[in-house]
Amino acid sequence: MFVEKCPRSAGLRDAKGRTFLHAAVEKNKVNTVRYACSWRKPLLAWILNMQDRKGNTALHLAVKDGNVVMFRVLFGNKHVNLSLTNAEGRTPRDIAQYNIRPSFHDVLDPEDSIHKVLKLARAARGVSRQDHFDENYDNVHGLKSDDYETKELEMLKDSTQAQSIGSVLIATVMFGAMFALPGGYSADDHNHGGTPTLAGTYAFHAFMIANALAFIGSTIATLGFIFAGSAKFSLVRRKRHFRGATAYLGNSIMALTIAFALRVYTVLSPVGQKTAILISVMSPSVVLYYYGDFWVNWLLFAKPLLVRKGSIWALLTGIGLLLGNIFMVSWPLAENKSPVPVARHLSVPVMQPVLAIRY
């Protein structure tokens, strides 16, 4: 009501030099911030970059709090300047980088997401030298404190114990599946006695490859977690092993899902192809959950990035992300182009999966 009657009242400040927009960000009043940033209120654009006595704009405060919702609203308005410095010479991008933990953080954490989006928008950094920036970063996170290494070791211990259970389970399941093959084995009086009866079909060979990749990935992940939990290695080496083991564990989960779908399809397709296809279509729900946070995070920033970077950039980036995810999911499906004879007893041909990649 004040703004409608007297637009200049929007620039009123308190003793700390804050406008109502600063206060709204600090009090997490999203609707108020959305009102100020609405394209229907162009008359309020002049207050979006106002700075308080510490030189902070509303965007500085949103980034400092790691509030993704608030940041997204401000970032989506082109009138908001992304490169203003506060009294400490820090831009929003600097503050976002300060907020990222030095270790044991996920790329989808709010602080990391905000920093990545600011980099994509080419937001400027402050005037601080890199060595000064690194020194301040160490001080902010207490990297030189006496108890820092103790905290890191405690987090490493908890994370290693939790994830090593999953890698061991996957390795155990895949080891058993390698010898309990779908379709069983040929009789001893056969020309190739003791060999798998379904050998020669594409789905069977793809299953074997996916199964082997899942077993190898989970085994490497288990070794990595063992090394990460070993006290004889330095903290730096243990962290490196932990990061590598986590990546291999993710790949083994993808291969496990594909191996399950291929095994079901190989067994059921000759007698119940519709059921086999239905189960194969349901199986990627594991993959959707695995990448769910990633896509939700990008969808939240899709519209603001579209405003900042344009439709062509947003389209090309979206296509690139989609193709990258498809590759990460389907790389275990390596198409075997060698002339392998098809099993004679199969009267129904096995449908090749769509997402097959030649190697």
Automatic annotation (TrEMBL):
InterPro entries attached to this UniProt entry: Ankyrin_rpt, Ankyrin_rpt-contain_sf, PGG_dom
A single GO cellular-component term on record: plasma membrane
ANK repeats: 54-75
Entry membrane topology: Multi-pass membrane protein
Keyword set includes DNA repair: no
Keywords: ANK repeat, Membrane, Repeat, Transmembrane, Transmembrane helix
Localization of this protein: Membrane
Domain PGG positions: 156-266
Any Pfam family: Ank_5
SUPFAM superfamilies for this protein: Ankyrin repeat
Transmembrane segment boundaries: 165-182, 202-227, 248-265, 277-300, 312-334
Main location: membrane
Name this polypeptide is given: PGG domain-containing protein
Organism: Digitaria exilis
